[in-house]
Design goal:
The protein is built from 18 helices and 9 strands. Strands 1, 2, 3, 4, 5, 6, 7, 8 and 9 form a 9-stranded parallel beta sheet that branches. Strand 3, helix 7 and strand 4 form a beta-alpha-beta unit. The longest helix has 21 residues. The radius of gyration is 19 Å and the shape is globular. The structure holds zinc ion. The site of zinc ion (ZN) has 5 residues, from loops.
Length: 387
């Protein structure tokens, strides 16, 4: 937090706003990276759309953002030069943000960096690789990305890699980690790169937990016990992940939070397929511009046609994890700018204090809030970095 934030909020030290500002808040996952690249948005300004920019991050008391380096396999392949180029361009975009605005952002690669940058009242930018496509099935590339600043990687997104199963496709039904996949996990352990199980198949999850000698994290997932979707973790998985010392970062995405919402959304997607297709055809730009046009229509229609989900539901998931495995294994991973529907009172980073307010209302202490917002993940970052 910044000194100015401290003096801007006099009032008692147990006021929700004071507790929120005092905590180091770290969001494990946002897709804003692709906006910087494909839409050339200037993140130093308040943006009229989307979920995250510097101004709103400051308003929301955010201190550190893991930017997702997401290679969409349908557009850039599951490996090869194009996938690597797409990852490299996104890493460069995050680095440029910090270089262009050193008074606002600084690239961070360690817990100590995050603490120092937050202490200076700036935002820490961190890098996470979503889906292992960019390592191009070569072990030496894990170190290549580590050296570029990447501090977590999920082996697959919704398309399985040859070495790790995804929760999003048929291959993942039977695929866990291959021998090469296990080598990748051990290499990540050696380097000090966190292993992210969000998006992975159940089999791959269990193989990772059995292989990794370091804490394992889920950067943007929730609980199947409440919302039973493949992207979430069941109770047995949550216990196993906690046993590694890891953290489940709860996502702010209604389909993974609210029971039945995912099926309702699928139905709406089906109903609006023609509308979405026409928007895509009307857009004359490249493939990423067409994707933006499709997402725009989906966002508008979801808002009109689906029931709101509130921050209380996010806290239900946090609560569930805490009741299962205690306060030390839960964090936050918004998936901002990667989702076409948001929680109604957590619709951008500016509304992050609503989460703290709800946690305090449910009986969580200031110390608990600090752990949930970022303390737990700082601990994992330190443990994973230890040689
Ligand atoms: Zn994702």
């Amino acid at each position: 937090m910044s000194e100015s934030a401290k003096t801007n909020h006099p009032g008692s030290s147990d006021h929700p706003e004071v507790i929120h500002r005092r905590a180091i808040a770290i969001d494990l996952h946002a897709d804003t990276t692709q906006r910087m690249l494909d839409e050339q948005v200037d993140l130093s300004q308040r943006l009229r759309d989307g979920h995250l920019d510097t101004v709103r991050a400051k308003e929301g008391g955010l201190d550190a953002q893991f930017f997702s380096i997401w290679v969409e396999p349908q557009l850039y392949g599951v490996g090869g030069e194009k996938a690597m180029k797409r990852a490299d361009e996104q890493i460069a975009a995050v680095r440029q943000l910090a270089e262009k605005h050193p008074e606002l952002w600084e690239l961070a690669t360690s817990a100590a960096d995050v603490r120092r940058i937050a202490g200076e009242g700036k935002l820490a930018a961190l890098l996470g690789l979503e889906g292992g496509y960019a390592i191009d099935e070569r072990l030496e590339n894990v170190e290549r990305y580590y050296k570029l600043g990447v501090r977590y990687m999920s082996p697959a997104w919704t398309v399985s890699t040859s070495w790790a199963g995804s929760s999003g496709d048929a291959a993942g039904q039977t695929r866990g980690l291959t021998d090469f996949g296990k080598q990748v996990i051990r290499e990540m352990n050696r380097l000090g790169m966190m292993v992210d199980v969000s998006h992975l198949s159940d089999k791959a999850f269990w193989d990772i937990v059995a292989t990794s000698t370091r804490p394992v994290i889920a950067t943007h997932s929730a609980c199947r016990a409440i919302a039973n979707v493949p992207r979430n973790l069941d109770d047995e998985m949550i216990r196993a992940l906690a046993k590694t010392g890891g953290v489940i970062c709860v996502i702010f995405y209604p389909p993974f939070l609210e029971p039945g919402w995912s099926a309702m959304k699928d139905k709406v997607d089906n109903d609006i397929a023609g509308l979405v297709q026409r928007a895509s055809e009307a857009e004359k730009g490249d493939i990423s511009q067409k994707k933006l046009a499709r997402d725009r229509v989906r966002r508008e229609e979801f808002l009109k046609r689906l029931p709101p989900v509130s921050v209380a539901r996010v806290v239900d998931h946090i609560d569930h994890v805490v009741k299962l495995v205690g306060i030390d294994h839960v964090g936050i991973g918004s998936d901002f700018d990667g989702i076409q529907a948001t929680v109604s009172d957590l619709s951008s980073v500016a509304e992050l204090p609503n989460l703290t307010r709800e946690l305090l209302k449910r009986g969580y202490s200031a110390g608990d809030v600090e752990k949930i917002l970022g303390g737990n993940i700082l601990r994992v970052m330190e443990e994973v970095a230890q040689k």
